[in-house]
């Protein structure tokens, strides 16, 4: 199953190397960094040393400017967030959620926030699920690479160990995260045009719609239909104006 690990605004080069090592021992090699602190983080000495030989992961890794770029081609997003967000996706432990996900046709991205601040609310809102790792309530802080190791292990276990690495999807492909985000932006503009959404007081309408569409498991064809609906709403609103 296609799997990607996405690190957002990583500030410590050593954590990137350690993340590559954690992924490699579990058989994963798709690593994308979103706007890391160091533009040359993939080749810094500390990164290479902490990778402990997982150089193939670093060589394949990509640095991108935005989360949209990092999620291109991925259809199911898992946030890693210790604290559940209001109006955010449902929160599960990895062991609760990943076995069922492993049986789906999705391409899966695991998102990790910065070492200091974790994931932003907006980034969590666009995810289908939030994963929280059970820890001692008196000391729940996990190092970034340690969290990646736990998630990578649980995901590999859910996939059946190394015997299921080449399992093929059995259902129709789903729309990727970029397509869903583009459709939501189109809907937001149209909802403003018809007066349903007040941009000055949007409340939580768009995060709620985001979660609704995530639960719908949209296909690319359904994205086109929903964009057509948004276009028709905007056109009808324009004709109704005096």
Radius of gyration (CA) equals 19 Å
Stated plainly, the CATH topology of the largest domain is called Alpha/beta knot
The CATH architecture of the largest domain? 3-Layer(aba) Sandwich
Low-confidence stretches: none
- Secondary structure class reads alpha/beta
Our count of domains comes out at: 2
Helix share, percent: 40-55%
Main sheet characteristics:
7 strands, parallel
Shape: elongated
**How many DSSP E strands?**
7
**Elements, N to C (H/E):** EHEHHEHEEHEHEHHHH
How many helical elements?
10
CATH class category label of the largest domain: Alpha Beta
Q: What distance lies between the first and last C-alpha atoms, to the nearest angstrom? A: 53 Å
Overall average residue pLDDT? 91
Any overview of this molecule?
Belongs to the class IV-like SAM-binding methyltransferase superfamily. RNA methyltransferase TrmH family. Catalyzes the formation of 2'O-methylated cytidine (Cm32) or 2'O-methylated uridine (Um32) at position 32 in tRNA. With 242 residues, the protein is of the alpha/beta class. The chain folds into two domains: 3-164, Alpha/beta knot, CATH 3.40.1280; 177-240, Helicase, Ruva Protein, domain 3 (Orthogonal Bundle). It is 44% helix and 12% strand. It is built from ten helices and seven strands. The chain has helices at residues 13-25, 45-51, 55-60, 67-70, 94-101, 121-125, 144-158, 177-193, 205-215, 220-240, and strands spanning 3-8, 31-34, 62-64, 76-80, 91-92, 108-112, 129-131. Strands 3-2-1-6-4-7-5 form a seven-stranded parallel sheet. Strand 1, helix 1 (13-25) and strand 2 (31-34) form a beta-alpha-beta unit. The radius of gyration is 19 Å and the shape is elongated. The termini are far apart.
